[in-house]
Amino acid sequence: MNTEAFVALWTHRYHKYTHIAQAHLSAYRAKRYFQTLKSRLGKPLVAVIRTEHFGDIVAAEPLSRQIRQRHPDAHIVWFVKPVFAELLQTNPNVDETFLEFCVTQRRLLLESGVFDAVHNMQFRSNNNRCEVCEVFVDNPVALAKGIDVYNYFEFGNLLEVYAQLAELPVPADDQPRLYLQDRHLHKVDALALPEKFIVIHCQSNYAPKDWPAERWNVLVDILIEKSGYDIIEIGLKSNLAVINPRYRSLCGQLSILETAEVIRRAHYFIGLDSGPAHLANATGTFGFILMGALNNFSSYNVYSGTYGRGENCRLIRREGVPCAELSVEKVLADIEPVLAGAVSAGAAPQK
After folding, report:
1. CA angle centred on 253, ends 252 and 255, rounded to 5°
2. Dihedral sign from CA coordinates of 144, 147, 148, 150
3. pTM (two decimals)
C-alpha cells in the first residue's frame, strides 16, 4: 500500500469511527433527556419516524392528527432530518421534533425503551441507511408486510403506505394540511408578487422524475405569451434560460413554508412529482403535475386528498412513458383548456 492509499484509508476510518462515536454519545444524551422529560411530565412518550423528504412528511400529515387522537395525553416526538424540521415545528399535533443525527443514533434511542409507543413510517431505503456508519435499520412492520422501495406503490398512495407501516388506519380526512405562521406570510408580502401568476417547479431530487429544461423553457414562453399570467419559479435552483420581465426565479431564496405560501397565493401550480407538488395539494392550489413511469412503476399516484381524487389537479402522464418523454404539446393539451375555462369564467379554480 502506497502512502497516498494509506492516508486515504485511515482518513476514512477516522471519519467513520468518529461519526459512530458521536452517534452513540448523542443517543445516550437523548435517552437521558427523554427519561428526565418523561419523569417531569408524567406522560407517556410516543415516537413518530418519518425523517424525510419534505413531500413525504406533508403526505403523512393526516397521520399526525390520528396519532394525537390515539394518544391524547402523550408527548409526541417526531424524528426528522434537521432540514425538514420546520414542517413539524408548526404542527400543533406534534409536541417536539427530534433532529436525527443518523440512523445508528435512532436505533440506539429506540432500543433504549424510553418510548412507550413507536409509529415507524419508513421502510428499507436511503432514509433508513447511514452511509458513514454503513448500516441499515429495518422497520419490522415493513419487513412483515413485504413493503420496500421496489414495491411500495403497490400498497396505495403515500398516506396509505405510511398508515400501514405505522399500523394505523387510513384517516377518513386524508387531506394534508400545512400550518403557516404570520412570519411566512410577512416574508412573502415583502416579495411584491404579481397579482396573477403561475408557480412552476422544474427539478426534483431524483433525475428520473424530471422533465427536460429546454421543454420547460418552451412551456414558460408559451404560457407568458398566451395565458396572461406571470411565471414564478420556485425550488432549490433554476436550470432554465428564460429571459422575460414576466418570469421571476425565487429559487434558493425561501424556506419550505415560505415556498408553500407563494404556492398558496398562485392561481395555478405546474410541477413535477416532487415536494412542492405536495405543498400545492396541502394549500389548495390547482395543480398540473408532470409524471411518468418510474423505476418499477408504470403508473402510480402518490397523493391523497383532492389531488389523489383528481378534484383539484391534472396528473399529466402517459401510461408506461417516463416523464422526460412527455412532449410540450401533450403538457399544453392538459393545461390550456383549464386556463381557458378559468379566463372565460373570470376566475381561477375555487380553492
Report:
1. 95
2. positive
3. 0.95
